[in-house]
Design goal:
Blueprint: H1 3-17, E1 29-31, E2 40-42, H2 45-52, H3 56-66, E3 73-79, E4 83-88, H4 90-102, E5 116-120, H5 135-150, E6 154-158, H6 166-178, H7 181-186, H8 188-202, H9 215-228, H10 232-256, H11 273-282, E7 286-289, E8 292-295, E9 304-307, H12 315-330, E10 334-340, H13 344-358, E11 363-369, E12 372-373, H14 391-409, H15 424-441, E13 449-450, H16 453-456, H17 464-480, H18 485-490, H19 500-510, H20 512-522, H21 526-545, H22 554-577
Helix pairs in contact: 1-3, 2-3, 4-19, 6-8, 6-9, 9-10, 12-13, 14-15, 17-22, 19-21, 19-22, 20-21, 21-22
The structure holds arginine.
Arginine binds near residues 123, 125, 160, 162 and 339.
């Protein structure tokens, strides 16, 4: 059983022994940030006192007197108006660290029962190159998938490509009327992207669905409709464009080290759309409205259209077909949509319709996030001030910056003292892309954030670069000490937590499990970056105060090396859960 559950059981027993009413303790036992006060705190005595009409401190004192977890707790103290501060025994903590060290997954057990999650993320519209706006869904989704898998769940990732929408009508129109053959032969996707931009420029109004009288927009819409109705030429062109577009976005996924179980784009669901509308109609959910078919949800709100007047199906219809197929094929407990917050209304309507229509067992979640902004809340620029057009370009710039940082760091006066590995280009990519991912994942995902090149690769802040550096420096201790890692990890010795710094580091390592679980429950990778930041601080204080290779005795040296090694493994694993790689030397 995990610590928090054990503490909850112990406290519940104490409450019973006092003759107080039974309480649900969920969320009332928390970590204490300042080690001065203990390791965990129970704050439920105050609520109980109110219920009983007793002074809160008295209730807290009585619970403390009856609390008996002698193997785990060293002290129980009443503080403030009625908090219970709990301190773990050093020998108990030390034995937990040993168990953690002996386990491949650092003591994180498999979820019981494991649940099936379908995660829909990245999902760009493919007729144009991936841009900065696709960054967040891609890396947040990937990290959530990694965390849930690590916890032992069954995760199915699906890149729900926008490969069937109006943007194909736009490039089809451009292709037929304004193609530059030579460009297309040289750089097909570049030419398609150019056509997309060119045609869009000719629109008189903002793309406002079906009511427009703008001839260019009308022509594009026609091309889309022809594609959807099986027009031979448009189908052929679509089939010609798709592999080119996919190859282009795959380059970005390769750089980001991101993989999907499925890449069922919107086009995959075309054969089912008729059936969806029919079924919705049969259930009385979809009704005719102004020549179209729509689902009326709330009084006074426009209906969610599932078939337009011209017979075209919508984003909503496709998403409904997608849910139906996911439910039938995967029987998931949860379906997550990692999509930016501007689509909140779409998902609200989608979920409402799907729940009534399919009554799925699956819970549907919109894991939403804010935008990435440049300084001045304008689009992101390179450091020299040019606009960043594509995601690929952004990653290039980050890698360039990383190369500078890594080079300055390996100068004779740099603090690493070790030359970076031979493969400097690959290293710069690991550092640069790690920096981009970490800068994003460390934000509370629901807020917008401002992209900052310099801060992103800082060596002394909450950045991937700092974590990667802490890892590499840690590894260098073992190289310097001439330690055979394989042998070292087999004969794990007990870890001494005598000094305050050792204990604080040990405690922080022990909290790895809680951090991963918390991140998995809330779908929040920033829980992991906050955890890493606390861990890195504890490690740095330990390292400054506790000699490792020069420890007073061989036993102490081995114990401290044990702490270092566990730190390295937790750093590496947590970074991996964020989709970030490490370097053995930096
Ligand atoms: N392709 C959409 C866009 O770029 C995002 C799709 C999100 N997933 C979904 N099932 N609707 O806005």
């Amino acid at each position: 059983m995990q610590l928090l559950s054990k503490l909850a059981v112990g406290i519940t027993q104490a409450i019973n022994r006092c003759g107080f009413p039974n309480k649900d303790l969920e969320g009332q036992i928390r970590q204490v940030a300042d080690a001065k006060f203990g390791d965990y705190q129970f704050n439920g005595a105050m609520g109980l006192a109110k219920e009983l009409g007793l002074p809160p401190r008295e209730v807290a004192v009585r619970i403390a007197e009856h609390l008996s977890l002698p193997d785990i707790l060293a002290t129980v103290e009443v503080a403030g108006p009625g908090f219970l501060n709990l301190r773990l025994r050093n020998d108990w903590l030390s034995s937990q660290l040993q168990t953690m060290g002996a386990s491949d997954c650092l003591g994180v057990g498999r979820a019981n029962p494991p649940l099936t999650y379908v995660i829909d993320f990245s999902s760009p519209n493919v007729a144009k190159p991936m841009h900065v706006g696709h960054l967040r869904s891609t890396i947040i989704g990937d990290s959530i998938a990694r965390v849930l898998r690590f916890l032992g769940h069954k995760v199915i990732t699906d890149n729900h490509l926008g490969d069937w929408g109006t943007q194909f009508g736009i490039i089809l129109h451009g292709f037929k009327n304004q193609l530059n053959q030579e460009n297309f032969a040289k750089d097909p996707v570049g030419e398609l992207a150019r056509l997309y931009v060119e045609v869009r420029k000719q629109f008189k109004t903002e793309e406002s669905e079906d009511q427009t009288t703008d001839p260019v927009q009308e022509a594009c819409r026609n091309e889309t409709a022809k594609l959807h109705h099986g027009d031979e030429e448009n189908r052929r062109l679509w089939q010609q464009f798709m592999p080119l577009c996919l190859k282009e976005i795959q380059k970005v996924y390769d750089r980001l080290d991101i993989h999907f179980d499925h890449t069922h784009g919107e086009s995959h669901y075309q054969p089912f759309l008729h059936g969806v509308v029919e079924s919705l109609e049969k259930q009385g959910l979809a009704v005719e409205t102004d020549g179209a078919m729509g689902v009326f949800l709330k009084e006074g709100q426009p209906p969610a259209l599932v078939r337009k007047r011209d017979g075209a199906f919508t984003y909503m219809t496709t998403d409904l077909a997608t849910i139906q197929s996911r439910v039938q094929e995967n029987d998931p407990a949860h379906i997550l949509y990692v999509v930016d917050s501007r689509q909140a209304f779409h998902f609200q309507q989608l979920f409402e319709i799907a729940r009534t229509w399919l009554k799925p067992k699956a819970q549907l979640h919109h894991v939403s996030f804010g935008s990435v902004l440049g300084p001045d809340r304008r689009p992101i620029k390179t450091r020299s001030g040019d606009a960043v057009a594509s995601l690929d370009q952004l990653l290039d710039e980050a890698t360039r910056l990383a190369r500078e940082v890594n080079q300055s760091n390996s100068q004779p006066d740099g603090s690493s003292g070790e030359a970076p590995e031979e493969d400097a280009a690959g290293d710069a990519e690991v550092i640069g892309i790690g920096a981009v991912k970490y800068a994003d994942l460390s934000q509370n995902r629901t807020s917008d954030y401002v992209f900052n090149w310099e801060k992103m690769v800082a060596m002394d802040g909450n950045t991937a670069t700092y974590m990667q550096y802490a890892y590499a420096r840690n590894r260098s201790i073992f190289r310097k000490g001439g330690i055979d890692m394989e042998k070292f990890r087999i004969d794990l010795r007990s870890i001494s937590l005598e000094t305050a710094e050792e204990r604080q580091l040990g405690m922080q390592l022990f909290r790895f499990l809680e951090a991963v679980q918390h991140a998995g429950v809330d779908y929040r990778p920033n829980v992991l970056t906050s955890y890493l930041w606390d861990l890195a601080k504890a490690y740095s204080i330990f390292f400054q105060n506790c000699p490792v290779l020069k420890a007073e005795s061989e036993a102490l040296k081995m114990s401290r090396l044990g702490l270092c090694d566990l730190t390295a493994r937790v750093l590496k694993t947590t970074l991996d859960l964020l989709g970030i790689r490490v370097l053995e030397k930096m």
